[in-house]
Every structure is written in structure tokens, then in C-alpha cells.
């Protein structure tokens, strides 16, 4: 006969930012917490995020911050009001990591990396009694218990409360592969399909663009559907990527045309005047460089997408302000910085407890929300993890 499942007060599955925050809240309420993590070490995506500078949050007023969560702003309002940008900064400093605010309001640890913060956090969690079991891969439910592939073989746990914090469905090699969707769907939990968010665009470049691969386009503006952004985009071998683009991809994904403004600080009329004042016989590229200070990459881009290029200054100025970017769609889901889709909001109550599975909570990127990069992702993962952990402790 199979061994009876192990019983614990609280089980957290997934040791990413959301799961660790849930474990911290449960432990703070005096509960015995077991965290089960499928990978050999916790928070691999958080560590990866730190490779290019760990953007923890954004130092801006709460209302402006909340506006970045689009249709789920109101569901996240109480959660982010309790644990928003200010609290994230205090929390990081409480772990001994000094933070600073960059010129665009983005908040980073002074060391930029995630590893010192994670090390201090894991130590504090362990000292607080949290038991983190790595290589414990959840494989669904068996006879009502949570079943795992563990280093010691098949194991089952029957917790009094559970927080699921398994992440989205991108960068599967770091652990979040979205496999959980099948098991939740089988239990009747309504799910929205996974879609790439904060993803790059596929652009089949002409050979002429090859020498601009890797070049940044700084301070440009992009628009798609109702979304606008201002920032940097990088021309890569496979297309376009970067924060300026990620803020508008939600509407590109839904089919809206993408337009680029290469001279957002200038009106169309000002640009036309400057272009008209150029010397006769000057090449178009020289005119764009001298009159408008466009970089070689920006000039190449207008030549790539604007063919045949108008020579008439007003028409050229219009193209510079509204350059249509033709592309082959978004890069694949697994490459996306984050994913939209997952557990629908109607599936959870205000505590983030699954309505159909009392005592089971959901946090982090598993929930169906999306936001641009810039600290909004991590902050909402921390905040929903803490919220679910506190509510689970209360349920106990
Ligand atoms: C390259 C990159 C850079 C990023 N930079 C930033 C940034 O600067 N700022 C920002 O705000 N956001 C950034 N993000 C996004 C951010 O890292 C994620 O939104 C965040 O980590 C999601 O947290 P989570 O806890 O919900 O899920 P995850 O971090 O994905 O954690 C989920 C955990 O669950 C585990 N798991 C999954 N399935 C199972 C299973 N069946 N059994 C057991 N364990 C399982 C996984 O192994 C993983 O450890 C970046 C992402 C990437 C990929």
C-alpha cells in the first residue's frame, strides 16, 4: 500500500519571488512552511533578471504605478497598496541591499545583481524556519494530495494550505514551463491561454541592415493601438527588442500596426523646415544626419521600412514621425521576458484563493496579468506572493 502523504501546515510550490514572499508571510505568522522547488536551486529567473541589472520596482506615485497593469489595475490595487514600490525598496534595504533610483525612476540594488539579495533572503527565510526542498517537482494531484518527483522518489504532501507560485510559461529552462496549466484545468480552474508579453519582434532584415545589428535606437517613440512608449529599442540579428518596444507589444500581439517616431522631440513642421534648408545635391542620408542628427542605424531603419523614400521634405518628415514597422510577429513564447495568460481573475477571490479549491492560493506570474518591464513585474510578484501568504496564514 502507498505510504500516506506527509502532512504540513503550509506548502508553497515554486521558489521564485512570489513563492518565497508567500513563504516569508506564512513563516512570519508562525506557520511551519515547506517550499517545494522543481529546480536544483531557488529563484533561477530572478537571478537571470539580475544579469542585466535587477530592476526591482519603479519609484513613482502609486497611482501612476498602478496604471501600468491595464485591465487588472483594480484587482491589484489593494495588493499593491499594501506592498508597492516603497515597501519593495524598504524590504530590499531590510535585507542589507542598498537600492538607488535611476534617471527614469527605475530602482536597482546598488550592486545591480540579484545574487546578494537572494542569498540574504534565503538565509533569513531558513532562520525563520522555512524549509526549502529543491528538486521537488510537482506533477499534479494524486488521491487528493500534491504529488512530487523528489530526490527520494515519488512523494506526496497533504498540506492544510497551499500557495501555488509556479511562474508563467517562458524561459522553461529556468523552471517555469507552464506545465501546471493542465493540472489546474483538469480541476476546473478557468485559464487564459499563455501569450508572450515583453517580447521581441521578428523582422526579416534585408542584408543592408546587417552592419547595424546590435545598434541601439535611443529616445525613439513607438505606438501601437492604444499604447505609446518612449525609450530604447535595439536592432538585433533577428529583429527588434528592448524596453521601448516591450511597452507596446500587447497591442502589436493583438494585431495593431506598429509605428515608430524617430524624432519625438520635434514636430513634423520643424523637421520639414530643417530638411528643406539642406544644401542642393546633398545625399538623403547626409541630409538626415546633418539636419536631424539621426544616427546611422536610424537612417538605415528609415531606408529599410520607408522605401521608396520620398524626397519632398514634408513627406519625409511625416515618414520620420510615423514610420510603419513591418514585422513577422512576436518572438516565441519561451523567449519572452514574461507571459500574459494563466489563472483567470474570476478563478480567485480577493485573497487570491482559488474559488474551486478552498485553501489553495495562487500568486505571481501564474495569474493572468501583464505589465511592461521596469520593475512592475517583480513588484506585482512580490506583492501577490505576500498577499496570498498572509491570507493563507489567516485561513489556517
Ligand atoms: C531575462 C529576464 C529579465 C528580467 N528582468 C526583470 C527585471 O529587471 N525586473 C522585473 O520586474 N522583472 C524582470 N523579469 C521578470 C521576472 O523575473 C518574473 O516576472 C518573475 O521572476 C516571476 O516570478 P514568479 O515567482 O511568479 O515566477 P518564477 O520566477 O518563474 O518562479 C517560479 C518557480 O516555480 C518553479 N516551478 C515551476 N514549475 C514547478 C513544478 N512543477 N514543481 C516545482 N517547482 C516548479 C520554477 O522552477 C521557479 O523557480 C525578467 C525576466 C527575464 C526572463
Automatic annotation (TrEMBL):
<dbReference type="InterPro" id="IPR036188">
    <property type="entry name" value="FAD/NAD-bd_sf"/>
</dbReference>
<keyword id="KW-0285">Flavoprotein</keyword>
<dbReference type="InterPro" id="IPR023166">
    <property type="entry name" value="BaiN-like_dom_sf"/>
</dbReference>
<dbReference type="InterPro" id="IPR022460">
    <property type="entry name" value="Flavoprotein_PP4765"/>
</dbReference>
<feature type="domain" description="RsdA/BaiN/AoA(So)-like insert">
    <location>
        <begin position="195"/>
        <end position="338"/>
    </location>
</feature>
<dbReference type="InterPro" id="IPR004792">
    <property type="entry name" value="BaiN-like"/>
</dbReference>
<dbReference type="Pfam" id="PF03486">
    <property type="entry name" value="HI0933_like"/>
</dbReference>
<dbReference type="Pfam" id="PF22780">
    <property type="entry name" value="HI0933_like_1st"/>
</dbReference>
<keyword id="KW-0274">FAD</keyword>
<dbReference type="InterPro" id="IPR055178">
    <property type="entry name" value="RsdA/BaiN/AoA(So)-like_dom"/>
</dbReference>
<protein>
    <submittedName>
        <fullName>Aminoacetone oxidase family FAD-binding enzyme</fullName>
    </submittedName>
</protein>
<feature type="domain" description="RsdA/BaiN/AoA(So)-like Rossmann fold-like">
    <location>
        <begin position="9"/>
        <end position="390"/>
    </location>
</feature>
<dbReference type="InterPro" id="IPR057661">
    <property type="entry name" value="RsdA/BaiN/AoA(So)_Rossmann"/>
</dbReference>
Amino acid at each position: 500500500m502507498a505510504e500516506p502523504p506527509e502532512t504540513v501546515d503550509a506548502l508553497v510550490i515554486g521558489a521564485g519571488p512570489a513563492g518565497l514572499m508567500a513563504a516569508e508571510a506564512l513563516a512570519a505568522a508562525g506557520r511551519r512552511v515547506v517550499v517545494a522547488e522543481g529546480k536544483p536551486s531557488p529563484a533561477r529567473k530572478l537571478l537571470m533578471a539580475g544579469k542585466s541589472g535587477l530592476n526591482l520596482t519603479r519609484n513613482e506615485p502609486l497611482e501612476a504605478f498602478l496604471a501600468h497593469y491595464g485591465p487588472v489595475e483594480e484587482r491589484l490595487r489593494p495588493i499593491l497598496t499594501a506592498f508597492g514600490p516603497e515597501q519593495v525598496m524598504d524590504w530590499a534595504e531590510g535585507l542589507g541591499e542598498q537600492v538607488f533610483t535611476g534617471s527614469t525612476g527605475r530602482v536597482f540594488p546598488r550592486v545591480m545583481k540579484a545574487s546578494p539579495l537572494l542569498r540574504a533572503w534565503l538565509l533569513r527565510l531558513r532562520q525563520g524556519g522555512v524549509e526549502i526542498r529543491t528538486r521537488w517537482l510537482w506533477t499534479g494531484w494524486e488521491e487528493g494530495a500534491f504529488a512530487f518527483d523528489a530526490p527520494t522518489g515519488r512523494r506526496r504532501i497533504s498540506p492544510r494550505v497551499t500557495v501555488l507560485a509556479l511562474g508563467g510559461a517562458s524561459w522553461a529552462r529556468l523552471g517555469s514551463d507552464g506545465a501546471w496549466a493542465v493540472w489546474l484545468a483538469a480541476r476546473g480552474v478557468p485559464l487564459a491561454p499563455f501569450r508572450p508579453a515583453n517580447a521581441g519582434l521578428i523582422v526579416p532584415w534585408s542584408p543592408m541592415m546587417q552592419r547595424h545589428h546590435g545598434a541601439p535606437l535611443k529616445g525613439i517613440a513607438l505606438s501601437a493601438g492604444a499604447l505609446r512608449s518612449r525609450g530604447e529599442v535595439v536592432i538585433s540579428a533577428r529583429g527588434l527588442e528592448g524596453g521601448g518596444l516591450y511597452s507596446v507589444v500587447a497591442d502589436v500581439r493583438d494585431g495593431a500596426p506598429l509605428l515608430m517616431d524617430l524624432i519625438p522631440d520635434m514636430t513634423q513642421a520643424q523637421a520639414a523646415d530643417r530638411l528643406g534648408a539642406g544644401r542642393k545635391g546633398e545625399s538623403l542620408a547626409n541630409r538626415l544626419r546633418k539636419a536631424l542628427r539621426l544616427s546611422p542605424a536610424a537612417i538605415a531603419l528609415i531606408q529599410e521600412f520607408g522605401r521608396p523614400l520620398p524626397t519632398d521634405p514634408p513627406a519625409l518628415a511625416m515618414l520620420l514621425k510615423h514610420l510603419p514597422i513591418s514585422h513577422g510577429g512576436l518572438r516565441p513564447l519561451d523567449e519572452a521576458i514574461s507571459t500574459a495568460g494563466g489563472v483567470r481573475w474570476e478563478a480567485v477571490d480577493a485573497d487570491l484563493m482559488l474559488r474551486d479549491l478552498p485553501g489553495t492560493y495562487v500568486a505571481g506570474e501564474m495569474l493572468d496579468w501583464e505589465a511592461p518591464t521596469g520593475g512592475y513585474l517583480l513588484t506585482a510578484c512580490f506583492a501577490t506572493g505576500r498577499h496570498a501568504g498572509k491570507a493563507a496564514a489567516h485561513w489556517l
